[in-house]
């Protein structure tokens, strides 16, 4: 596998555009494209090496990604190698993080961190909200040794959820129409953990990890409750949770901390400049700009014209290598392909580039569930490109991601927008 991106794009120009920004959000147009991962890796390495960025935060579950964080920082009993750590990822779509591209980045981070003091080691964290049961399990397993009283509070919450297995939709439907919710139990968990979290000393980030798992569980319950209703509420709960987690991580890392974020374009591209705005939807890119200021945040979108991708034809279906057909005529990707220049980096500070794309155009978005034969009827998001992003990387032809061949485990599909992003 060639893990290095093609050399046509001059990343020096992107690094110049980033300047002294504290937040760099790197997108992707699918969760299964090799080049999106390798280009983001190359950009992230340069941000760490040249601009002192502190951590990478991704569209992944907190408990899973925290295991990567412990491994790259060399914590005791964190795993023998990245492959062993990533083989523990079992939530569908497993290929998003259990892939060889992330193995390579993880090993690079571990090697880079070896010479750094603990307070300066580069972290790797998950921002997402889905891991209600995994977060409860992680807390109870840790607290049984560190804080038995708090462990009993977590166990009561687990017992409350027990009748629903690990199915968020089943819990949400039952509590909407028949049963009392488990929210009070989760609030008690968070309150109990916050009382004593600073005394937890299993590793240097134990208090952060324990409190974050409690917050994930509480917000996941809210998310699953909102799933059964129509409208934007569940999407907004999810993206607000991710933005607040990012803020929590920056504050944890202290004054001057800088954050790199990896998420789908639909999360990092400012929602105000897409049709999401008309549905009253917000996202991480919008919220980050609003809180920290546009000069302190750089949003980098990605897209490609054609190629291959890893996806499934239904939720929980086996992963497949699928053909990504040529982009729809008139779309962002088709216009850039027709330039005949191959891969391109667009910096929207350039007035000519900004003027060319200063109108709503279709911009392809592929999710974990994908039907190539139907994509022209739904996989394009109307986008004002120069406002949605600060920069855009176009890759003319792309290859599929390289999964570790983990068999997905069963979970209900969460409500996402669009197309299983």
Quick description:
The protein is an alpha/beta fold and 421 residues long.
Q: How do the helices and strands follow one another from N- to C-terminus? A: HEHEHHHEHHHHHHEHHEEHEHEEHE
* Beta-strand content: 5-15%
What is the fourth-level CATH superfamily of the domain at 11-54 and 264-398?
Answer: EreA-like (biosynthetic domain)
Main sheet summary = 8 strands, mixed
Q: What would you report as the Rg, rounded to the nearest angstrom?
A: 21 Å
Class from helix and strand fractions: alpha/beta
Helix content: 40-55%
CATH topology grouping of the domain at 11-54 and 264-398: EreA/ChaN-like  fold
Number of helices, where a helix is a run of at least 4 consecutive DSSP H or I residues: 16
CATH class category of the domain at 11-54 and 264-398? Alpha Beta
Mean pLDDT: 90
Q: Low-confidence parts, pLDDT < 50 over ≥5 residues?
A: 407-421
What's the shape? Answer: globular
Overall strand count: 10
The N- to C-terminal Cα distance equals 26 Å
CATH architecture designation of the domain at 11-54 and 264-398:
3-Layer(aba) Sandwich
Pfam families: Erythro_esteras (PF05139)
Protein name: Erythromycin esterase family protein
